[in-house]
Amino acid sequence: MDNFRGPVKTDCEELLARFQATESVRYEQFLGIWRDMNFSSIFYSKPEGSERRRFARLIMSVVSPYFFPPYTFQIRVAGLYLLYGLFNSQLNTPREKIRVALKDWEDVMQFQRDAVNAQHYDVVYIFRKLLSDKAFYFTAMPTPLSFGEKKEDVKKTEICEQFVDPSTRPQELVTTDVLEEIANIHDHYESLKKAVFTEPDPNLNLIQQNLAPKLDGAILAYSNWQWKRAESEEQDAGEGPSNQESSRRAQLLASIKSRSYGQAVEASKSRRHRQTQLVPASGADCSQKVALKKTRGPSLKMRTQQRFNTQGNESEGLTRLWCLSTVNGEKAPERRKRKFNWNSERSSEPTI
């Protein structure tokens, strides 16, 4: 199925690019593109029942990342519409659900709040329709994990730069020419205010004073913050997690181990004969460990051999040799079967 991942991603990005060109978030615009591309026929490439579900699961895994950050709001809306269309047009019964990790659910809730605040009610309706249809499958990880399997040539999910706002977008919007134009507009406003009012009220300020210097300072502070963040991410990537995060994780693991090892679990009925003791651990990570004291007696074979040895040395008058089976070479005496005598039975019958 991994061979179909590339073509499916290409088709999805083509649909998203066409929707991005509309500069709209309306479902009507998306539906026109969906019908024009006949996107619902993507499931007809695998009509076999055994592979149909796996192919639908592959398509959902390819489309789901477009519904989460770092993509723009319009691309996330298109990803939501695309998941809604794929969920309702698939050929599986029951339908294959959309996999959502619990760590990403907060981003989904924030996306819904943004749509409500912006009054994009068609986006809110599609999202709540998926919730009512129980289309989401909540998992611990965004992708399935398998223990003991090592996959080679696993490619990381590449982010399409076309659908992501560049990090330098504020610097590109607020340029030197824009700041000069804002300063000229502010000076023109001040001159008009003085011409209209003979005695202008100093409290009458319809715009913020010193707007151009403040805007320039905000952009400079944002650039410095961005540079420091990128530098810290590079250090974390090279040296691993920070010391604070590592210490916090170590403390959490130590507390979990101390709670689990500090209490003796009551044994089941079949293991009640084994005694459970709490033995303090020598290491610093674990405070206590549970040690099971096992006492095992000799086996049946050993007990039988010891019994034979002891009985062979003693006199025959005190002990009697016994065995579980007949000795080799000896035959047990056969018991004679008593034949049924009809005459004796007849003679015993009472006469009338």
Q: What do these coordinates show?
A:
By secondary structure, this protein is mostly helical. Among the domains are: 2-145 and 158-163, no CATH class; 169-239. It has twelve helices and four strands; from the N terminus they run H-H-H-H-E-H-H-E-H-H-H-H-E-E-H-H. The protein has helices at 5-21, 27-37, 49-63, 73-89, 105-117, 121-132, 169-173, 176-196, 211-239, 243-261, 300-313, 342-347; strands at residues 98-101, 136-139, 275-280, 288-293. The protein has a two-stranded parallel sheet. A two-stranded antiparallel sheet has the order 3-4. Strand 3 (275-280) and strand 4 form a beta hairpin. The longest helix has 29 residues, at 211-239. The radius of gyration is 41 Å and the shape is elongated. The chain starts with a helix and ends in a 5-residue tail after the last helix.
